[in-house]
Amino acid sequence: MQTQDMRKVKITEGFFKELQKLNEEVSVYNIYKRFEETGRFRAIKCVKDEAHKPHIFWDSDVAKWLEGVAYILVKKKDDRLEALAREAIDDICANQLPCGYFNSYYQVYAPEKIFTERTEHELYCAGHLIEAAVALRQCGVDEKLYGAMLRYADYIYERFYVKKDAAFTTCGHPEIELALVKLYRESGDKKYLDLADFFIEERGRREEEHYGFTDGRYDQSDLPVREQREAKGHAVRALYLFIAAADVAQIKGDEGLIAACERVFEDIVNRKMYITGGTGSTYHGEAFTFAYDLPNIFAYAETCSAIALALFADRMAKIENKAIYHEIFERVVYNNVLAGESKDGKGFYYVNPLEMHENIYDYNESLKTKLYCPLPERVEVFDCSCCPPNLIRFVENIGSFIYGFDEDKKRIFVNQYISSETEIAGAKVKISSEMPYGGKAKVFFEGQGELLLRVPSWNGGVVMKVNGKKVEPEISDSYISLALDGDFEISLDFKMVPRFVYANEKVWYDCGRKAVEYGPLVLCGESVDNGENLSSVRITSLSGAKVKKGEFFTLEVPAQKMRTSSALYSYEAPVPEKFTLKLIPYFSWANRGKGDMQVWWL
Amino acid sequence: MQTQDMRKVKITEGFFKELQKLNEEVSVYNIYKRFEETGRFRAIKCVKDEAHKPHIFWDSDVAKWLEGVAYILVKKKDDRLEALAREAIDDICANQLPCGYFNSYYQVYAPEKIFTERTEHELYCAGHLIEAAVALRQCGVDEKLYGAMLRYADYIYERFYVKKDAAFTTCGHPEIELALVKLYRESGDKKYLDLADFFIEERGRREEEHYGFTDGRYDQSDLPVREQREAKGHAVRALYLFIAAADVAQIKGDEGLIAACERVFEDIVNRKMYITGGTGSTYHGEAFTFAYDLPNIFAYAETCSAIALALFADRMAKIENKAIYHEIFERVVYNNVLAGESKDGKGFYYVNPLEMHENIYDYNESLKTKLYCPLPERVEVFDCSCCPPNLIRFVENIGSFIYGFDEDKKRIFVNQYISSETEIAGAKVKISSEMPYGGKAKVFFEGQGELLLRVPSWNGGVVMKVNGKKVEPEISDSYISLALDGDFEISLDFKMVPRFVYANEKVWYDCGRKAVEYGPLVLCGESVDNGENLSSVRITSLSGAKVKKGEFFTLEVPAQKMRTSSALYSYEAPVPEKFTLKLIPYFSWANRGKGDMQVWWL
Fold first, then answer.
1. Which residue, A66, A320, A514, B264, is the most exposed by fewest CB within 10 angstroms?
2. Do A511 and B535 touch (CB under 8 A)?
3. Could you name the CATH architecture of A404-435+439-494?
4. Which chain B residue has the Cα nearest residue A499?
5. Is the pLDDT of residue B384 over 90?
6. A122 included as an active-site residue
7. Hey, is the C-beta of B599 within 8 angstroms of any chain A C-beta?
8. Interface of A with B in 529-548 (CB under 8 A)
9. Alpha carbon distance B172, B192 (integer Å)
């Protein structure tokens, strides 16, 4: 399956339209401001200032911001934003070395170490700059950075692939691989694909090439990529690598590599993923751990790894379109990804726990223990601020993940019900949807072809009308297929009711508990709505649950709080007390000050 | 209340007799061997060997071992053991400096730093040496170390109290204070009490005197002791300090200090204690954290802090005899303390978690993450091996905690039902008890006085017979009081049935769960008996529970395992499957190889 990219898809209204508006008016500027204040935009001017050395990965922050700007500017004119982007592009291009190399850290502070330190994100930064350049060109914003990055990619090709005189073979942080595939697709020059393929194939074939941090597992260098059997190590690294592996496997029709991608995807979604779509459960190495190890309070579940899982799912669907990939995309985007940003568009989460006890945080802060502890409130910028611009570029690019089509364009897929319109092979398709807060969606179709409409797994029964007439939908592999010729209004009503979700018996943190989902949304409860002792709340049924729409989408659930005496331990069983539990979408949490939060309930 | 010390109490049979036998035949020798191999006994020979510098606290390990040996040798002749102890005593005495000072680290490796480093356990080691010397003298084993330690204590008095020329006022690790009270009681010389009092009173009055590690809370130097309102900081430090504070407060009748001790004790048992009696829930600083923060998997609950809580409870009972102190003593001893030692007497636990998932440990080991993670198996020695000899000396001294009496000896208390005999003020008292595995106990009394028999709070109804005749017991403040004159056989049958215990609604880790207790024992389940997925076990009733006695005391409980599909998340509720849960005493866990363990059940 191919996907319709965002340049051809107009987000028309509703949830994502609002989100993009917030990004375009607030977030993109606020991130710029914080990156400017913290020196990231000064760094690319490449003026040596020993007192304010840039971090080795700052170029990638600027690059992701530029990529986000490209996706904004293709949709709307914004001279101020374009001027800011232009200045950054000019700075990068002006400071690119004659050989094509650009890195604001190495060329200014350690030129003798260029291409000698595998673990220091050099090609990772290059990859993000290439992604930005491709996006800026595709969006008609700029050709200059694209030219510069072609030269940079050529230089990398020369050093790593032709001369092989760099001190390492593959970068400690995958990213360059997927960027090179994009560059290959944009330029048509096969050498970039060869280089991506080379980086993927060479990985895990040299014992000395891994981080001292843990071992080869950390950066997926313990085994050749095609021999990998499970998700391990740093989650973002693993997922970026497998995004590229899936890209290359699809282009080349490489069955061995496809099988490795499938194994890793399967391992993630069946054993190592939070219900929010979060991955990488430990802060130690920001890594996947082992099957079913999914702590809630000390979860890591980085926003970037959520974005990466969404992208990996998208690439897997391109290899073979299965509904599961879009389901996982939907789960991770509406929950873990969107939790990364505050309602006002200014604050961001790097890690996304599933349970918060603010007094754990307060205690650790008061003693400055430096123990790992998720934040009870979002912040505007991090030392390692990869997530905020990643969110911007992802949300602005959401149009790319809605529609799919076969190569001959005879089959058109609606994979996500996000209000939008597009044109595929002469057919006009338009979606008008209530999601994620309601199950109704209208799909307008004008043209000729087979339309495949995905049926979400959370749906409790779908009612379909075609041009006003009820039609019993035939569902095959989670798609409704309609052969159409002419003008059609397909109205879908996916029954959206709150549902309990149960974790596998091996997930000891969640065993005996249930989460509540409403459509694609995982819900959570906060102390600001529910008072103290969230852990003592018990829900036995959702039958009396009521949706209330206010500042936040809210589900009111008849529940109980189990009350005990003041003793620490007692032989008396807790006494249930009637209680109305107010649940909101997980992504909406932590927007009203510090407090406690919980996803899994007794 | 005064207590009858172990020299006057003979442990006659049963549980503690067996435990002492194991200690005397195996543990005391094995600990000696491991301390010998690791250089602890070489260190006190004070021969400089830069390649094998002793740890700053090794003297205290030797001292606790010597104290344990004293309690063994007063009960039975053991020439081999005595010879080992004699050599250690001779080494210490031979190397004591003329001024009286002894420390195998400072005098050999850093003599210029003597009494300059507050945080380095110098007076802590001195305190344990003094405790050993007092015990050896009291037990009639040795006078030489006692003489040496009087000189050392005099030197400390001179430097800290008279000249005040040491570089610090109070030791970073309390211990000297309680040792000085023992020395005062043994010698009758009030200057040792004055010095203990001085160390207690001066603590927390100098802002500069605390560890850089966290802040003054860590070693209870944030506030004067009498102003402390809660348990905080390093648990062993806090408890050793409050043991001494209670001693001094009792001797001086100091109401302000008594109130501080009561506040701290109350804070521990009502807000900061595991159901096993464990305290100090975080490894970070081995410390108390905040109210109700009692994680099970990553619990710390050091064996030494359990012993210290038992001793603190004993001291509080001496100030004012309340049953709660003996209840806490019973809880902490039969659960957290005894879990510190393996069934074969050779292995020890430093930390005592309430839930074990061996794959968490295996994962961290395989990656050498160095993250804190409790051990799934006991080991023979630790780098910091304070707990093993502490256990020895505590178990050998258990006789001291059974009986109490009023100063006029008109009232005699039986506080613990441990099979033993003693003579108090002309009255002979003998206990023959099934505890902890059964609720029957016989108390033989010969003499005249008021006998007060403690009624444990776990008791489900007591049947009492006096000289074979059933007598309805009158229970007041958890004691049965009998005015006796003559020969009596009081037979007590405390109903011992398994009971659910529930944690306070604020304990989020245990909310909605229950622990199972049987008499004074907290029970746990292990995977070796119950297979995988302990977290999926649900118990709803204990009515069909059966006691089985085999290698371990076992309670078989009709239960369910909640089974799910293999999916990670599912809309299908787990299905209950009949299951018999086998529970054993918490202290018996981890004696059959690595595996999982759980105390709190759904």
1. A320
2. yes
3. Sandwich (2.60)
4. B571
5. no
6. no
7. no
8. 532-536, 538
9. 19
Residues B17-72: tens digit of each pLDDT: 999 999 999 999 999 999 999 999 999 999 999 888 999 999 999 999 999 999 99
Active-site residue, from A46, A125, A386, A524: A386
CB B430 within 8 A of CB B420: yes
Nearest beta carbon to residue A214 from set B217, B285, B367: B367
Residue B213 predicted with pLDDT over 70: no
Q: Is the pLDDT of residue A527 over 70?
A: yes
**Shortest CA distance from A514: residue in chain B:** B573
What is the architecture of the domain spanning B403-435+439-494?
Sandwich (2.60)
Run of H or E residues at A578:
strand A575-585
Q: What is the DSSP letter of B509?
A: T
Task: Give the DSSP H or E segment for B301.
Answer: none
Computed over every residue of chain A, the mean pLDDT equals 96
pTM for this entry: 0.96
Chain B contact present for A602, CB below 8 A: yes
Residue ranges per domain, chain B? 13-202, 403-435+439-494, 498-598
Whether residue A592 contacts residue A528, with contact meaning beta carbons closer than 8 Å, is answered with yes
The two tokens of residue B429 are 């008292």
Quick check: B234 contacting A, CB < 8 Å? no
Percent helix, strand and coil across chain B, each to the nearest 5: 40, 20, 40
- Measure in Å the smallest separation between the Cα of B135 and chain A Cα atoms: 36
Contact A81, A67 (CB under 8 A): no
Question: Which residues in chain A are contacts of B285 at CB distance < 8 A?
Answer: 367, 369
Work out the minimum CA distance from A566 to partner chain B, whole angstroms.
7
Residues 359-418, chain B, touching A (beta carbon < 8 A): 359-360, 363, 367-369, 371
For A367-397, how does the pLDDT look when each residue is reduced to its tens digit (9 = 90+)? 888 899 999 999 988 788 889 999 999 999 9
Q: What is the pLDDT of residues B333-371, one digit of tens each?
A: 999 999 999 999 999 999 999 999 999 999 999 988 889
Query: What is the token pair recorded at A490?
Result: 């397909």
